[in-house]
Amino acid sequence: MKRSSLWFLLLLAGCAERAPSEPVVVVERDSAGIRIVENSVDTAALRAGWAVSDAPLRTIGGLDAPPAEQLFGVNGARRLADGRIAVADRSMAVSIFGPDGTLLAKHGRRGEGPGEFMAASLAGARGDSLIVLDGQLRRISIVHADTGFVRSYAIGQRGGFPVAQGLVDGGDILIGGGMSFSSAEGFPIGQVRPTSRYVVLDAAGSVKADLGEFPAADMFARTRGDAFSARRSPFGRVTGIAAAAGQIWLGTGDGWDLRVYGADAALRRIVRFDRPAGAVTAALRNAYIAEETANADDENAARELRSLIEEMSFPASLPPWELFVPDAAGNVWIGEYLLPGESRRTFTIVNADGHAIGRLTMPPRTLPLDIGPDWLLARTLDALDAESLTLWRLERGTGRS
What angle do CA 69, 75, 81 make, to 5 degrees? Predict the structure, then answer.
């Protein structure tokens, strides 16, 4: 693939206007010891050179796979140095596949004993040792790709359902983003945005650094009799977070504004983009309702869902993103909000200094889970929502870090 030229104009102070030929203009300044990084981006030109292969190099799982190799509820996957692939899903096992996609081993099963899981997610890997967080049991297990369960320990974080967000340099684990509702505290009603605490855990499961509490996701909550339910609000904001190159990136979704922390939870820089929020139009509201009700079991279920949506309020503007994914080069991929009817998510790629360096649109219904120097491991859904792991060749643009 022919690569277009991608270059940056870096200004240390003052303001600048982006010329038509410049994909990005970055303005940096200091404010009370915090580095402020402001990106002015031509999103079309920023795509130069970034692409994945036309078809996956490898596919694992899917409807045609043997029952033991089928995947459901994938909750983390990593490609190891020798090409093997580890994945955790709702089978409550960590499956190990060879470089050719052959199933080599399954470690774990459903349960509460050593080497068993009730809500397993793969937080990351240190060599051939896999770090598995069980949010329900509130513990971390070390699972070796070859020999299986090694040990486990309870986590020190309290409050909220713990969610693994990756590894900080040195193997410390970043968790946060989970929400929990308690009848003892009184269930919330209506439009709410609960908070979640984000912390770094050391190898013993103790809190090593505390970033604090941040709003998690916009939710709509209601009670009916003794039943309580909560679901994501239409076009709701969500906090994105990722650990990359010893830094922790966090953005609450209130505009294109990100905070970058060190592993010690000290704020290092604020990264901003001059990208205005799109409007939530009547057409988008109607498209949201149609998409949400299309998969209802019957007309009664669809009518009930429409009634629920009518109780919700729609925001005036779209959220900027839905998730962050780190890559092996220390960049963060910002997964932009997916509109109703869309199946191809676009990512804006930002390097460790906070400079936008690329933009890439993924194949349909494909979500990256682990990104290497020249490959990308993803979860892909087919037309029947069957899950598979897909390995793609990745070409980085001329602005690679």
Answer: 75
Which DSSP category does 67 fall into?
A: G
Vertex 122 angle, CA 324 and 248, to 5°? 35
**Biggest alpha carbon distance in the chain?**
62
Among 308, 336, 318, residue whose Cα is nearest residue 191: 308
Token digits for 184?
A: 């003892």
The SS3 of residue 389 is strand
Best CA proximity match to 392, nearest among 369, 384, 400: 369
Could you please report the per-residue DSSP string of 316-369?
A: SB--SEEEEEE-TTS-EEEEEPPPTT----EEEEE-TTS-EEEEEEPSTTEEEE
d(CA 140, CA 243): 18
Q: What is the mean pLDDT of each run of 10 residues along the chain (401 residues)?
A: 34 42 85 94 83 97 94 96 97 96 96 96 94 93 97 78 88 86 70 92 89 93 80 94 96 96 96 94 96 90 90 94 96 96 96 95 97 98 96 82 41
How many angstroms separate the first and last alpha carbons of the chain? 19
**Cβ(77)–Cβ(86) below 8 Å:** yes
Residue 298, token pair as written in the block: 């019957």
